[in-house]
Automatic annotation (TrEMBL), chain A:
Name used for this protein in its record: Acyl carrier protein
Localization in the cell: Plastid, Chloroplast
Domain of life from the UniProt record: Eukaryota
One GO CC term on file: chloroplast
Entries under NCBIfam families matching the protein: acyl_carrier
Cited InterPro entries: ACP, ACP-like_sf, ACP_chloroplastic, PKS_PP-bd, PP-bd_ACP, Ppantetheine_attach_site
Metabolic or biological pathway: Lipid metabolism; fatty acid biosynthesis
Domain Carrier: 55-130
GO molecular function, one term: acyl carrier activity
UniProt-listed HAMAP family: Acyl_carrier (MF_01217)
Sorted UniProt keywords: Chloroplast, Fatty acid biosynthesis, Fatty acid metabolism, Lipid biosynthesis, Lipid metabolism, Phosphopantetheine, Phosphoprotein, Plastid, Transit peptide
Principal location listed in the UniProt entry: plastid
Family: Belongs to the acyl carrier protein (ACP) family.
Automatic annotation (TrEMBL), chain B:
GO biological-process terms attached to the record: lysine biosynthetic process via aminoadipic acid
EC number(s) stated in the UniProt entry for this protein: 2.7.8.7
Protein name listed in UniProt: holo-[acyl-carrier-protein] synthase
Source organism, top-level taxon: Eukaryota
GO MF annotation list: holo-[acyl-carrier-protein] synthase activity; magnesium ion binding
Species lineage: Eukaryota, Viridiplantae, Streptophyta, Embryophyta, Tracheophyta
PANTHER family xrefs: 4'-PHOSPHOPANTETHEINYL TRANSFERASE SUPERFAMILY-RELATED, PHOSPHOPANTETHEINE TRANSFERASE
InterPro entries hit by this protein: 4-PPantetheinyl_Trfase_dom, 4-PPantetheinyl_Trfase_dom_sf, AASDHPPT_N, P-Pant_transferase_sf
Annotated source species: Brassica carinata
Keywords, ordered alphabetically: Transferase
């Protein structure tokens, strides 16, 4: 389903992203719609043209989630894993966000914090905030 | 026969309930004492299907205005696989899919019990005729809060809200006014330092209040109580968390009860920050099953402003038994 293609592509996208984007820019007519963020693009090319998070960020988020929710070490988490499906309630989500803020030295707006529902979303938000941080 | 849970004799204290013999497979005739009303089910006038739901899901008197009915299930008390199978037959396909998405048997079971609690409880308040819990339809308001789609099914316009933890699932029901509830395990450990957490998310007044509590355990407990009260408010408000960030309102603890104070920054000068503590919302904080804090929040009906909230708490196992736990008034 959507999740499978998204997962596999989001790991690859970061390395080949720049090539694909330049292709997109050269041939805008070949796409029915260009999608951004997390939505499915046109059928001819199922690619997320977005700044998907690096695999190591996803891994760090997974580790924090596992710790907060006291999941066993061998619980298989993917980028698409939903916090609610793992048994996280709102208090857990807030604690996860706090742990992510500490780990990555970022500050998350409360509205953004409450909108995070999957590991991928958390990782994307983190990278977005890290990128926006003023240079030290 | 079926591996039904063994009926533990006796019902809640103070509840006048007719004796039920454990060997009864279904309730043939029941005296139901709900509040002060005593009602005998008239089975002869009902159809076969209605009768089956009437027997297994005895109907309930609606909450009066200012009343919240709080129902809860303890998942550990529901072990019968045949009963759980019966529950799963009540769910819509979407609900079943969501249950299947949960990772692990315990989470799946709890998700099933949550939907069962909502459907069976709401079905019981339909006073006109017995309603099949499967027929209830739900929708979300424009902010994502689940609501009963009462216009599309012929049912009473009830408000409800659900909350769950690993070991307790609760559902609050009201008429006339929106309701929000939140439950938390009393022993829940916070991974972060409580004051650090509070400074990040709670209001300044709440942080100051927590800082005065020196015993770490007492401070943690107060933190949890505040969390449930704040969550209950946001859920009653029904506009999502961004409509009422936790640091924009204070739950004030008074000798009589709890009060909502909204921080309004009229000027840029923080010293002139004013707080409106005139309510508009009622709160109740209870302990359930000796293990959980439960907060209930309802909107104040203008006609009822200042009047206490009455809460009636019942523990239930749908299709099996109810137990009246308490009836209490909560002031502000």
């Amino acid at each position: 389903m959507a999740s499978l293609s998204t997962t596999s592509l989001s790991f690859k996208a970061s390395s080949i992203k720049s090539t694909r984007i330049s292709q997109v820019l050269r041939k805008p007519s070949s796409f029915q719609s260009i999608s951004f963020g997390r939505f499915q693009s046109s059928k001819s090319l199922r690619l997320q043209i977005s700044c998907a998070a690096k695999p190591e960020t996803v891994q760090k988020v997974s580790d924090i989630v596992k710790e907060q929710l006291a999941l066993s070490a061998d619980t298989a988490l993917t980028a698409e894993s939903k916090f609610s499906a793992l048994g996280a309630d709102s208090l857990d989500t807030v604690e996860i966000v706090m742990a992510l803020e500490e780990k990555f030295n970022i500050s998350v707006e409360e509205a953004d914090a409450q909108n995070i529902t999957t590991i991928q979303e958390a990782a994307d938000l983190i990278e977005d905030l890290v990128q926006k941080k003023p240079a030290a | 026969m079926e591996e039904e849970k063994k009926f533990v004799g006796g019902w809640g204290k103070g509840n006048k309930m007719g004796e039920r013999r454990p060997e009864d497979i279904c309730w043939k005739e029941r005296w139901v004492d709900v509040g002060s009303a005593v009602r005998l089910l008239d089975l002869s006038a009902m159809s076969q299907m209605q009768r089956s739901f009437s027997i297994d899901l005895p109907s309930l008197r609606l909450p009066s205005r200012r009343e919240t009915h709080l129902w809860y299930i303890l998942p550990d008390e529901v072990k019968s696989t045949s009963l759980l199978k019966r529950y799963s037959q009540l769910l819509s396909q979407t609900e079943k899919d969501r249950v299947d998405q949960m990772r692990g048997d315990e989470l799946k079971k709890n998700a099933l019990l949550a939907r069962t609690l909502v459907r069976t409880t709401i079905a019981r308040y339909q006073t006109n005729e017995a309603v099949d819990p499967r027929s209830l339809m739900f929708k979300k308001n424009m902010y994502g809060k689940p609501e009963l789609d009462w216009q599309n099914c012929n049912v009473q316009p009830l408000h409800f809200n659900i909350s769950h933890t690993d070991s307790l699932i609760a559902c609050g029901v009201t008429v006339h006014v929106p309701v929000g509830i939140d439950v938390e395990d009393k022993e829940r450990k916070i991974k972060h330092d409580v004051l650090t957490f509070a400074k990040r998310f709670y209001s300044a007044d709440e942080v100051n209040c927590l800082a005065t509590i020196l015993d770490p355990e007492a401070q943690r407990k107060e933190f949890i109580k505040l969390w449930t009260l704040k969550e209950a408010y946001v859920k009653a408000l029904g506009k999502g968390f961004s409509a009422a960030p936790f640091n924009t309102f204070t739950i004030q603890s008074n000798p009589g009860g709890y009060n909502l104070c909204k921080t309004s920054e009229i000027t840029a000068n923080p010293l002139e920050e004013t707080k409106k503590c005139n309510g508009g919302w009622k709160f109740a904080l209870l302990e359930l099953a000796d293990s959980h804090y439960a907060a209930v929040c309802t909107e104040d009906d203008q006609a009822d402003e200042g009047a206490p909230m009455r809460v009636i708490v019942r523990k239930t196992i749908p299709f099996v038994e109810d137990q009246l736990i308490l009836k209490e008034y909560f002031c502000n």
